[in-house]
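Why does this matter for the project? Reviewers at the last site visit asked to see concrete outputs rather than summary tables. In response, this paragraph embeds two records directly. Each consists of the residue sequence and, immediately after it, the corresponding structure tokens. Nothing has been edited or filtered.
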Amino acid sequence: MQGHYYDGQSAAAQAVDITLVDDVWVLCGAEFELRWPLSQVNVSERLGNTPRRLTFSAGGHCEVTDLAALDALLVHTQTQRSWLDAMQHSFAWAGIASVAFVAVLIFSYVYLLPWSAQVMAQRLPSIVLQKMGSSTLSTLDRVMLQPSQLDATRQQTLARAFAQLTPLTAAQMPYRIEFRSAPKMGANAFALPDGTIVLLDELVALTQNDDEIVAVLAHERAHVEQRHAARMVLQSSAVGLLMTWYMGDVSSLLATVPSVVMQAQYSREMEAEADEIAKQTLRANHLSSCLLGTMLEKLEAAHQASPATTRNADDVVMDYLSSHPATAERIQQMCPERR
């Protein structure tokens, strides 16, 4: 068996023939012969097709690339096969490892990624949230939104009504309403990570009751308080999450924000959290929690009244009921007296 011997004194490799005679390793070089008892030689574990190393107690080592020949020699030493080597050459263990790998991937995607996103979302500094919000609004203004047609007085009335809605806890950030119009998008309102809530004229037109609009805004503010938009951005970009977590680099994260917000669909858990906070907020401000349920019913009716043939891809992406699924169960939770 051929190998390369390194004496530990220099980096030069010397070609040697390796044999095993009477439990003694014999290395024969061009001008030398070395003998080492089995007890003074450590043989490295087999790992795939990487060269194995014979390390000598007095210094130096020998590298062997002919793994089959080395295995054949080791059989005669009655050396037990290591558990790692046995696993590498076992189809059963290979199958178990494959199943375990898939299980880890599924667990990471279903549990670890959402948990990590939730933790990171709460730790994002305000400057990052501001950049996420401003970049998203800028993109939406460029591709979807139009200036609001509501007059200044109407905008001030709605903004004042929302400002008078006292939150359950101290506000984590300044909130503001941005009024826009989007005929193709339809009735909608959505929150950005920095506390900006975009309110569309089309949603305002659905009701004459400003309290119902305030109820929708309370729901959107709850999404911001729970960092739901930021969590979705982090979950949608595993690379962005890792870069933010380990290196503090948010550039890759910011690049994904507009597309994620435009295609947002909150989970049932997120909706339940926002619904509960909105319900408690409305009641704490002496308003009926049924206001939000009533508004969702109006949104659902408007959605159903819209001809399916007129709904293009953009309508589906940003439709309120697509991003905030309005179910009878949710409405019942917000307005239990209807039961």
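We now turn to the second protein, recorded in exactly the same manner.
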Amino acid sequence: MDKFDAMRIFVRVVESGTFTKAAETLNIQKPTVTRLVQLLEDELATKLLNRTTRRVTVTPDGAAYYDRAVRLLADLEELENSMTGVKANPKGRLRIDLPRPLAHSVVVPALPDFLARYPDIDLEIGASDTPVDLIADNVDCALRIGTLTDQLLVARRVGFSHMGICASPGYWKRHGKPAHPGEINVHHTVIHMISARTAKPFPLVAHHDGESVDIQGKRTILCNDVSTCADLAKAGLGIVICGTFMTAPLVASGELKICLEAWKIPPMPVSVVYPPNRHLSTKVRVFVDWIVELFAAHPSQVKPDNG
């Protein structure tokens, strides 16, 4: 038994959930998959999987083995690539996690270009407004918006998200547009995005000509999903202050209207983060370089980081 082959097969079984799907994705016979996983368990003298007629589940020992196996196989792939010149043609599975609105408006529409450049990379994409645990979930890299708090991750700042003050035309018609952000705190409802880390609203401070105003709103609507915040504003329920990568398409369609453009909200940093054990990965490196290039092509939504 080739232990690395058995390890790869075991990893695929865990990720696909069944022996049948693992065999299909690996283009080998199901009995081969079953036999090699059994041999691996015999070699380790440990049960790695619980089997039923419909699905397999991972035992605690199997979960621990899977985590180590994924890292070991990634390191082995990188070593082989470095010795065989595959750096120019990276291949294999790349697991990425993206903020949902940034994925929808900027990244996903451009992915055909990335896959045309790197056709041997297989993408696995997660999209959510709640950050995942990259190390625990074996994610290769992720985009993060805002201040980073996880000191265990390697980070590269790739740009800044512009911020805009918007509401629906109907809302402005009913309540009038403020001439100064201080009026928002007296007369208007503000839709606040809640931080997934602190469960508190993100601070919103507007600056103009040496003056700064903390925007709270007379009334507030709190929400933990930035896409829903924009939907609430579209419905005419209040003013939303969020990244233009989210609001730009809605402004272009006329569903939202901007106000107080002379006042600037500090932009939110956008970073690529990845676990320390992924720092040599060719797949991660080319994806990060592509993201930097992509943001440079969308300066109205994400300002490139020019150092």
